[in-house]
Amino acid sequence: MRQHCSFTTSNPFAYKGALLEWSRSFRKVLWLDSNAHTSKYGSFDFLMAVSEQTVKSVSINSMDELKSFVGKNQDWLFGYFSYDLKNSLEDLVSQNFDGLGFPTLHFFQPSKIIKCNGENLHFLYLEDCAHEIKEDFAQIKSMINLEQNKEDYHPIKIKMRIHKDAYFEKANTFLEHIHRGDIYEANFCQEFYANKVTIDPWETYKRLNAISEPPFAAFMRLDDRYLMCASPERYLRKQGTTLISQPIKGTSRRDENTTEDENLKKELAQDEKERAENIMITDLVRNDLSKSALKGSVAVEELCKVYTYKQVHQLISTVVAEIRADKNPVELIEETFPMGSMTGAPKISAMKIIEELEETKRGLYSGAVGYFDPEGNFDFNVVIRSILYNARRNYVSFSVGSAITAKSDPEREYQECLLKAKAMRNVLETGE
């Protein structure tokens, strides 16, 4: 079904910018980049998938279609699940304002896939366009270090959907629910946005990615809708009969002073409130994975391990499980979505309260972007640290959140949100 051709290069990372520029002519694009982070659960350095309108391929907009396609182990699919998929998985609704208008889910069968592993660039093209591999490689190679004619940057004024006093009021309402026993943790998110603006999504993504260089970065174009994602978090990976989830809960700023930075890292590792957040969500993820796992196979490989990124330190846990070989991969998504780190616990109760207190529909934010491969394996991130853009509506948005627990201080949670918003805000307001 696909033709495979490989090229060896001494500097494959030089192709990253060229591939992004090359993708501008396609209406459907998904770029995934590990930013040179290595782990035992990684599968490539970076990957570009595009859909060419002249080549017959599949587009999928429902879970039933997705389950049918993936169950037949046919080919690669790339796309996303928005947070609001929860409404069809559980008895839930989303009636808040939505300025972006992303479909609930969308997957496409790419006509062209270019994947980097080590020093090798692998071209996996559908047969209808396989004759274009050498020509495309030459074109991409010619675009390395090619200077783009960038227009003067026009700063964008970002507005807050929830102002500080309202944030405190809502955070205290979450605390009332916690003290009453309705929930014991909830991820409370707020939107930052701008109307009547135009951005260059490719350049915006490059600037955002350069700030933090996270392991689950993504750029997506779906016609006139765009995702620019600098996510550090994995939602779920299926690797053979192994499931891997890596929830993040617990954040600390970095410091330019090495000694102070090391102290901040140690403080995060020992912070009772941050560890409690992480452990509660890790337990929720264990429960989610147990729905499909073989008895006794769910294990916590890492608990509250500090990972350091360019902007922040984070507490990350790694939960693994074994599943039956004949399990439909899409059912694994249905049983675990959305990621517990973006909801709270108990999960359904937390999502209901979130819907009441947040001002906007989350849409793709808090959802997951990634792929299914021909063998039914998959890997999806959590859509956080992301800018979303609807070019037709001239609407740009990003959201951030923090976990509210019994020990939460609303002022501290508010400051955590501002810390997480800093990169996206700088990129949009200053172009840096």
Note down, in words, how this protein is organized.
With 432 residues, this protein is an alpha+beta fold. It has one domain (2-430): Anthranilate synthase, CATH 3.60.120.10. It is 31% helix and 31% strand. It has helices at 15-22, 63-71, 86-89, 133-142, 164-180, 201-212, 258-270, 272-290, 329-336, 347-357, 410-430, and strands at 2-8, 28-33, 46-51, 59-60, 77-81, 105-108, 112-117, 120-126, 159-160, 185-195, 216-222, 225-231, 234-239, 242-246, 248-253, 299-308, 312-322, 344-345, 368-372, 378-381, 386-390, 395-404. Strands 1, 2, 3, 7, 8, 9, 10, 11, 12, 18, 21 and 22 form a 12-stranded antiparallel beta sheet that branches. Strand 19 (368-372) and strand 20 (378-381) form a beta hairpin. Helix 1 packs across helix 4 and helix 6 (201-212) packs across helix 11. The radius of gyration is 21 Å and the shape is globular. The protein starts with a strand and ends with a helix. The model has no long low-confidence stretch (mean pLDDT 94).
List the helices and strands and how they pair.
Blueprint: E1 2-8, H1 15-22, E2 28-33, E3 46-51, E4 59-60, H2 63-71, E5 77-81, H3 86-89, E6 105-108, E7 112-117, E8 120-126, H4 133-142, E9 159-160, H5 164-180, E10 185-195, H6 201-212, E11 216-222, E12 225-231, E13 234-239, E14 242-246, E15 248-253, H7 258-270, H8 272-290, E16 299-308, E17 312-322, H9 329-336, E18 344-345, H10 347-357, E19 368-372, E20 378-381, E21 386-390, E22 395-404, H11 410-430
Antiparallel strand pairs: 1-8, 2-3, 2-11, 3-7, 4-6, 5-6, 5-19, 7-8, 9-10, 10-18, 10-22, 11-12, 12-21, 13-14, 13-20, 14-17, 15-17, 16-17, 19-20, 21-22
